Amino acid sequence: MTGHPSESSTNDRAAEGGGAAAAIRRWSSRILVADPNRLGTAAGQDVIDIYRKAYVNGGLTTADARRAQLIWFLSFLRGLPALLMILLPATVLLALELTGFTPVPREFWSALLFSTAGDVLLSPIVYSLIAAPLHARGMPLPLRSALTIAAMTAILIAAHQGLHLLFPWLFTSFGTYVPPLLVFQVVVLFVYLFEVDVHIDYARVTSRWTDTPLQRMLPYDKRGKLIFLRASDHYVIVRTTKGEHELRMRFADALERIGTARGLQVHRSFWVAQDYLTTPRKEGRRMVMRVDGVIIPISATYRDDVVRHLDLAEQAPKA
Description:
Layout: H1 5-16, H2 19-31, H3 42-56, H4 62-77, H5 80-99, H6 106-136, H7 141-166, H8 174-195, H9 202-206, E1 226-232, E2 235-240, E3 243-248, H10 251-256, E4 263-267, E5 270-273, E6 281-283, E7 286-291, E8 294-298, H11 300-315
């Protein structure tokens, strides 16, 4: 439950402490691009949703990588750090020109503006055609980013040289254009690597997950400890410590995705986590157990397994 805004802000400031360090932390938390693992933005949640489905379905596909890249790239471009980093070289040139500190050659100015605009326009295309397939194949992040930026650089050089042949008065020659371009592209590589690619690296994101494949199919607010599963027509009701959620899938498929979670199937339509198994009792002509306030039937097929399991649990030495 969220408290009153002013009260929450006061508590946050108290927790962070005072002084310049706290002010910097507050500023950076508002300005810097969020890591999707923190789920701090809608874009981050969208990326995690894509990866969650990919993980359950056996791995990241090129289409998954393209969607995640596009979502996060557009989110990145809307942030202040992206605008500052992309426009910084052009801003420095403009400042030098306006202050009269040193004259900036027109050719150098046009070359840098061409590179800046080219990187912004080319990034979605090149990342889709090159980075996404490499991402899906599991290529290490630094190498993937370097190859992508190298391809963008080659395209920019080729395009600029073609325009130089058509408009030599506007676009500088190869020897004048390439050195500043290479310097700028090194900056671009680090910007993309640490502000875009590292946040949506599939291997890095999924390595933090410790829940079961079935739990990864649940919404974040329902992703608690498993209590029981119940089959209902073409759906499976998943009860966790954070509530219930309905998944459209076969009960057998849900059981396969339980992973390392321990429990027993007590009925053709019910599975109960080990920590929530209770002593069976008769109710009329059937055996049942109460689990988290729900009466669950125990079929004759699984009755002996349930009794044997509970007997062993009773005999086990207490920690």
